[in-house]
Structure formats: structure tokens, C-alpha cells
Amino acid sequence: MKRIIAGVALAALSFLAHALQPYVAADKVAGGDLKAAMAATEKKLTAGGFTVIGQHLPAGLPQYGVIVVTEPDFSAALTQLGGTAVVGLPIRVGVKADGAVSYLNLEYWQRAYLRQDYAKAESAVRATTAKLHKALGAGKTFGGDVKTENLPTYRYMAGMERFADKTDLKTYANFDEAVKTIRDNLTKGVAKTAKVYEIVIADRKLAVFGVATNDAENGEGWWAKKIGPDHIAALPWEIFVVDNKAHALFGRYRTALAWPELGMFQFMGISSHPDTTAEMLAKVAGGTYSAPGN
To answer: How far apart are alpha carbons 251 and 152 in whole angstroms?
Structure first.
């Protein structure tokens, strides 16, 4: 009987060891004011060797903010992989007005985004994670378990999209036209959006733009609040460019990856979000969006 109990315990531990969660809880900073909490967090990040490329204050979520950073070795590793790896370049850090701080669990997100190429960037992922731990602190991970082996082909349920089922927003004459179109439309606030950050690697024809969706009815403020704004480091959504094509990840994939513990009724409660968000991103890209099945 003791052997059976020990075997069950080992099996449980083995399962836990092979599951990852999307976020890491960091050390708190002084709370009470979001602006001050974000400034304190940004100071830690800069001192830790990260470069701040944008701040995000989501409309409708006044107690929450996001700081977006890059790290040179991490960026170099993903740039070397090229292609769709560009979507993983930004590192997002969530901040609450009460001083709570969280950030992306890079292993979770990069196993999902890089898929079969993860091993090629694993050393950079681990080194950058260690830098985040040192800069911000390393508390418990949270957000919902996904088995490590399932992340490369992750989807919420059968019939829903995976990473490879990316939405092609628009094809342009060339890379420069793609970047200019997206940049100009974000400056204009097309579809009630705004630019949070941009990373443009012209010599590799790669780019990624962070897009704030500020529409009061369809933007991130209403749906993120409804399913759990403590996952604030999921925001903002992004458009990425590879060569002469602009892409966005399918909303049902991107949302489920960021909130993997969502119940079906919660998901149904924001069922319009994937398509309305895709429509906004398509307009920013200068294209049009047709919902799956249309």
C-alpha cells in the first residue's frame, strides 16, 4: 500500500512538473497610485537591463497598467529564428494601483509561440527569465495550468484555432509599405486604437506593433474586466509583420492562451470579442476581416 501511495504521489508530482502557467507574481511595489507604481516598476526593469518600449493604460481598467520591455539577448535569439517568432519579442509586465506586479512566464509563452523551434531559443529564454526574477522578484506562477507538451499545439478545445492558424490581415507591395500603413493608422487612431509600442527589424523584414483597443463597446476594457484583469500582462494585443504580410493571432487562441483556466460560460460571455478585435486589427492593417465560416 505504501508503494502504491508513493507511486500516486510521484505521478502527481510528475504532472505538476510538466505543467506551466502564463504569469509570474513579482514583488510588490509601493501602492495607492498607479502612476507611481508603474514608475517604481519601470525603474527596477531599467536597472535590471531591460529597455522600456511602451506603457499601456487600458481604457476601462483604471487600476491596471502594462509596461512593455525588450532584452537584447532575448531579442537577438528570437530575431535569429525570424518569421512568426517576432510575435514573442515584447515582454509584458502588469502593474496594479495597489502595487501588485506580474510578468509573463517566458517559458510558457515561448513554448507556445516558437513551438518546434523552442529549443533553439531556450538558453535565451532561461537567461532572460533569470534577469526578470532578479529585477522584479520571483513569486508563484499563476493563471491556469497547461501541460508543457501541449503548448506547441495549444488550443482551448477541439475545433478552436491554434497558433499556426494565424489571421492574415493584409498583403502589401513590400515590407516598408506594411510598416508605414500600420504606423500611420495607429497614429490616426483608426477603429479607436492607439499604438503602445513598435519593434521594427528592417533588415529581417520583421515587425510587431502593440495595439490598444479603446472602443468602449468592443475594446479590451469590457472583456478583460469580465474574465479577469489580474491577467493584465496579457495586454495589449498585437499585429506582426513578416515580409510583406500583416498578421494577428486568432482571438480564440490568443485569449485562451492568456486565460487558460477560463470556464466555457466565461468564454461564451465574451464570444463577440475575438471577431470584433480582429475587425479592429484588420482596419489598422488597412485590410478587412471575415469571420471564420463567412
So the answer is: 17
Least confident of 26-30, 155-159, 171-175: 155-159
DSSP string, the chain: -HHHHHHHHHHHHHHHHTEE-SEEE------S-HHHHHHHHHHHHHHTT-EEEEEE--TT-TTEEEEEEE-HHHHHHHHHH-GGGGGG--EEEEEETTS-EEEE-HHHHHHHHHGGGHHHHHHHHHHHHHHHHHHH----EES--EEGGGGGG--SSTTS--TTS-EEEEE-SSHHHHHHHHHHHHHHTGGGEEEEEEEEEGGGTEEEEEEEE--TTTSHHHHHHHH-GGGGGGPSEEEEEETTEEEE--HHHHHHHHSTT--HHHHHHTTTHHHHHHHHHHHHHT-----TT-
pLDDT digits (tens, 9 = 90+) for 136-154: 999 999 999 999 999 999 9
pLDDT at 7 over 60: no
Residue type at 110 in one-letter notation: Q
Q: For residue 164, what is its C-alpha cell?
A: 499556426
Residues 20-44 have a mean pLDDT of 97
| pLDDT of the residue at 17 | 53
Q: Which residues pair with 102 in a beta bridge?
A: 25, 94
Mean pLDDT of all residues belonging to the chain: 93
Return the pLDDT at 12.
47
**Is the sign of the CA dihedral 83, 128, 98, 20 positive or negative?**
positive
Sketch out the chain's domains with CATH numbers.
20-147+162-285 (3.30.310.70)
pTM, whole model, 2 decimals? 0.93
Average pLDDT over residues 240-254: 97
